[in-house]
Amino acid sequence: MHTFRLVLEYDGAGFAGWQSQSGGQRTVQGELRAALLGLAAEPAPLRVVGAGRTDAGVHAAGQVASAALSTRLDAAALARALNARLPADIAVLHCAPAAQDFDARRAARGKHYRYRVWNGPVRSPLRARRWHHEPRPLDVAAMRAALRHLPGRRDFASLRAAGSEVQSSIRHLRRAELGGQSGGALRFDFEGDGFLRHMLRNAVGTLLEVGLGRRSADSLPTLLAAGDRRLAGPTAPAHGLTLQSVECGAG
Amino acid sequence: MHTFRLVLEYDGAGFAGWQSQSGGQRTVQGELRAALLGLAAEPAPLRVVGAGRTDAGVHAAGQVASAALSTRLDAAALARALNARLPADIAVLHCAPAAQDFDARRAARGKHYRYRVWNGPVRSPLRARRWHHEPRPLDVAAMRAALRHLPGRRDFASLRAAGSEVQSSIRHLRRAELGGQSGGALRFDFEGDGFLRHMLRNAVGTLLEVGLGRRSADSLPTLLAAGDRRLAGPTAPAHGLTLQSVECGAG
C-alpha cells in the first residue's frame, strides 16, 4: 500500500457533495474512488479521505485528499492516469507521495473558503454557476462592520446547520474579509482551522441581511452569544461557495 | 414603433450562435425575438439586429442589439419584462430608447473581444466553460512578438473562415494584446472596427502554434501577405471567445 496526497479541483454543480452516500448519488469521493480502483494493482481495501467534506453544489479549487492503494505507479503517473479516467468536472492538480498514515482530514491545519456574490441589478449568465446573485443594493460598509465580529476562537452554534449533532461547536475563525464594492463583484474570504456544517453559508446569509438593512452590524455579538440557529439569516446558496485551498501538516 | 438599444450578456454554450437560422436551432436572436414578441402591443413586424454575429459557443458580456417594436413599455420596464421572460443564459443588462432608425450593426464603431487560454498542465474544471485549455508550455514572449504584427488596417484574408464569401477582407485591427504568463491564465484582447468570420479564433490558433515553437513570430508578416487561409493555424475553440463590449455611434 502507498499513500498519496492529492490536490483536486472540481465544479460542484454535478455532485451531491464530497462524501459518498448510501443513496448512490454522484459524489466527488465516489468518482475518485472509482478512478483509483481501476488503477489499483490489487483489489485491496481503498481508503480515500477528503480534508473538507464539501456539501452538494460547493466547488473546490484546492481540495486535498489522501488515498491509500496498492499500485506500482509513481505519483506523477498516477495523476496522469487519474485525469484520464476522471470525468470532466474533476481534475487532480497535484499528486505527491505521503507518509503511510497520512490522513487529509486529520492533517488539515487550515482551510480557505471563498463565497462570491454578484451584486448587480440584473442576473449575470456568465457568473450563474459560481456567483450568488443579490439584485438589491447592499451596504457593504455595514457588512464589513458586521464581519469584524466573527473572527476568533468562539462558539459558532448560531451559525451551524439546524439538526447538527457535532459535539463541539467551538471553532477558530482566523480571517473573515469582504472584498469588492456595492453593485459589483463581492468576495467573502474565510480562513480557519475548521468549519461547522453550513457555518459559512449561514454567515453569508446573515451578512446579506445586514447589507439589506434588515439587521444591524452591532447585532452580531448578541446573535453569536445566543447560540441559537433560529436567530441567524437564511443559508446562502451552495453554488457561491468554493473551497480555495487547504493547509496540511507534514505527511 | 419604438426602437431600443439593448446591452446583452449570454453564455454561448447553449446557442447555435447569434443569428437565427432556418434549421430551427436555438439562437440568441431567436430567444430575444420570442421574448420581445410576447411583449409587443401589436403583432407588427419585429426587427432585431445584433452588433456582432457571434458564432455558436461564443459568449457575450456586452453584445449590443437594436430592437424595434410596438410597445407602451418604457425602456426600464421593457428590460425588466425581458429579463423575466428570457432563459437563464441570456440577460438584458441595459435598455435605452434609441433613434427610430438605430441599427446596432450599422452603428457599431468598434468591438472588443477577449480570448481566454488556460495554460496549465492539467485541465481546469472551474474554467472549462470559458477557457480553452492548452496543457503544453507556451512561449508567451514569442506569442507577444507575433501579435505585434497584427494591428493595423490590412487584408486579413489569411485568417478568415474557409469558404467565406465576404466581399472585402480588409479590416482595421486597432489593438491586439496578450496578458498573463506562461503556465497560467492568458488573455488575448482584440479591438477593431469589425472582424471577419473566425478571424480571431484563427489568429489565436496561429499564435498558439508560435507559442508551441511550431512557427516563428517573424513568419506572421509573410502569412498575412499571402492571403491564404491554408497557411494559418487551426481555428481555436469557440468557448474561449467572449464579445466583451461594443462601441456604438449615436442612435
Low-confidence stretches of chain A: none
The total count of helices of chain A amounts to: 6
Secondary-structure element pattern of chain A, one letter each:
EHEEHEHEEHEEEHHE
Radius of gyration of chain A equals: 19 Å
Tell me what portion of residues of chain A adopts beta-strand conformation.
25-35%
Shape of chain A: elongated
Distance between the termini of chain A: 15 Å
Estimate the mean pLDDT confidence of chain A.
94
Percent of residues in helices of chain A comes to: 10-25%
Q: Total number of β-strand segments of chain A? A: 10
Give the largest interface pair and sizes.
Answer: A-B, 22 and 22 residues
- Helix/sheet category of chain A: alpha+beta
Write the layout of secondary structure elements.
The structure is a homodimer of 251-residue chains.
Chain A: E1 2-10, H1 28-37, E2 47-50, E3 59-69, H2 75-85, E4 90-98, H3 104-107, E5 108-118, E6 132-133, H4 140-147, E7 152-155, E8 170-179, E9 185-192, H5 199-211, H6 220-226, E10 241-248
Parallel strand pairs in A: 3-10, 5-6
Antiparallel strand pairs in A: 1-3, 1-4, 2-3, 5-9, 5-10, 7-8, 8-9
Helix pairs in contact in A: 4-5
